[in-house]
Write a structure and sequence with these properties.
Largest sheet of chain A: 4 strands, antiparallel
Strand content of chain A: 15-25%
Shape of chain B: rod-shaped
CATH architecture of the largest domain in chain B: 2-Layer Sandwich
Number of helices of chain A: 7
Number of helices of chain B: 21
Distance between the termini of chain A: 31 Å
Oligomer: heterodimer
Distance between the termini of chain B: 154 Å
Radius of gyration of chain A: 16 Å
Chain lengths: 179, 641
Amino acid sequence: MYGFVNNAIKDYVVSTFGQPLWSKVKMECALKPSFLDAEQPYNEELILATAKAVSNHIQIPISDILRGFGERISLTLSEKYKFLMESRGENLKDYLVNLPNFHNRIMLIYPELTPPEFRISNVAPNSLYLHYTSDKSGMKDLLIGYIDGLVKIFNETVFVETVESPHESRPQEVFKINW
Amino acid sequence: MNKSHTFNFNSENFNRIFPFYILLNEHLEVESLGNSIQKVDDTLKKGGYFPDYFSLVRPHSENISQEILVDNLSQLVILESKKQSDLILRGQFEPMENNFLFVGSPWLMSVEEIKTRKLSIFDFANHDPLLDLLQILKTQETTTQELKELLRVNNEQKNALKTDREELNKLSVVASANENAIVFTHPNAQIFWCNDAYLRLTGFSREEIMGRTPIEVGLTESTDRDALQKMIDLFYTGESFDVEITHGRKDGSYFWTRTKGQPIYDDNGNVLQYFAMIEDMTEVKEKEEQLVLLSLIAEKNINSVIICDKEGQIEWVNSSFEQMSGYTKEELIGQKPGILLQGPDSHPETVAYLSDQIKKGEPFNCEIVNYSKSNKKYWVKIQGQALYNNWGEIVRFFAIEEDITDKKLLESQKEVLLKSLAKSNKELEDYAQIVSHDLKSPLRSINSLVAWIKEDNEGALTEQTTQYLNMIEDKLEKMDHLIQGVLTYSKIDKTDIAKENVNIHEVVSNIISIIHIPQHTKVEIKNTLPVLKADRFRIQQLFQNLISNAVNYIDKEEGLVSIDVVEAKDCFIFSVRDNGPGIAEENQEKIFKIFQSFSKSEKSTGLGLSIVKKIVDNYGGKIWIESELGSGTVFYIKLYK
């Protein structure tokens, strides 16, 4: 089902910037037709390359594009996989607490996929830390977009701060999410 | 209010519920462990330091510490064994006072793995759905495998279909664009498809053809019934056929075809449809007929026709050749004509010429002596050439030979005759000279005698006698002219055509100054006359005769003779015009004949114009006149440059 990430990215580009741009991006990034397959592994590099190509064409900062991608990913999830969203918790906090569990289960079920790696720590009544393991700094924007999307879906007000960005000893993005 | 329960288990029943449990103390040392976990990792012992045995894969952590475990209490954890390859445990940590209890089970990927991990169904708690999940997974895998296989087959068929369709498209284009007519019929011979070429050749529209059989469309009165029957028989037995047959057109005419049919079978060997290709043979047939005609012409030619292969060996001869050479076709084929037919009297130079031209592949044309089978000598005129194919290579030689033995005989006879004629001419000329000389001598004597008679009897002669004597003298003079004329005439010969540049203007001017021109006559040269290569004496004779004639016979009070010339591309046309009495039409033909004089003049010998004509003839020129009685005459002389 990870193909949905790629599908969401495609939907975002097509609905926001039009099919011709998507065709160009597809060609420039040499995306194979299997890019949209359900069993397509999640690939950070490809997502960043796609965002860069879109950004080059329409002169919008890559960070904005990545945020757009992230938001669309959570919105797509809520539309197409509503049952999953609902099984993960009734509010944003529960959802985030379950986020690592969900992805870890996926890893066991689909060993050939590399699901994103999340971890939750410092869970307090009004805040928690969300860790995302990645050595690519660009993914931070995707995550912010993703969280923004979730905030909209759960209709909550949160304040997100970046606690840590990837560095050599710890390739992690760490956000503190405050209610 | 919820009642809080406390659960107490002894290790035995706890083992039954969680056979893979591991209990750690606060130092993360193994306090106790389930029966089954020992089976999958027999190195794991009580008192062992847990981080030495396992690493935390998810949530990922570099090391395992009390804090990390506390942090992940509410999480699903995935442990990876450091001792056993690929052993993954899935479960969760729970705090128990100061201890940490791990409950979970190994994460197996397949039913087979149960065995390789030396486990059995009894090693799993009954509530643990793992084994059932693996069963489901196995079923799913099988289904997926089957689906994948089905998909593969499906894709293969799809590709095969695509290839077939492409092939069909290609064939369809080939069929549609083919110059030959192509027709598809059902097994009952009804046409269901034809290309444009068929419509073009037959003149029918597609609507007029569909549903009819090719025979209904193409049958004409001229159709060869045997060929038709052969085609029908092969068609209905489901065999292919190849016949030459005429095919009708809509307008009632027909054309020759080569019709090839081929049944198309289905997988069960039944005829599915018939495919026929109809090739327009009109041109081929015409060529065939032309070929028949040409071979007939070659065969029936009165001249001999011979065809040799590129090696020069006889391949074919016509019957005239057989008759001429005396050999039969069988005796000639494979022979080299030169070796067989030439002999001692065949001129070596001609033999060499023939051989050389044939070697070069160039046309040849010569006359040569050949010998027949019975060794009879005959002359042939050979005209031949090499025949080349489309690539410019010599494939054959062919020659037409004419028997010219009779012609050769005639030629030699003619030569003898000409020689004897020349001799006669010479003799005649000699004779004329002798006669002239001999005749002149008595004339001169008579003349002297008459002069003496007159001298001796001066004053004694009667007027009558003196008149007679004068008449004798006149006749003598005329006789002298006549003899001179005969002599001149006989001397004009082709051999006299000495070629020198003759200024005709000068010659004619000279004539005008020396001949006697009566007072009342004027002679003029209108345009400058040219210089011609000729014999000066003959040219003078020519013009002097013409001009003298013109001057002498003028009967008008004011006589006028004019000489002119017009230049054409390759000749000059001279004219001598007078305003004399003219020549009657009936005499115009005769004036050039010898001894024909239509003048009453005493001086006319009847030889002048004959001499003129002979000179003009000798130069290959032409002379003619235009004349009107009472007005005058124009003589035209055409002389080539």
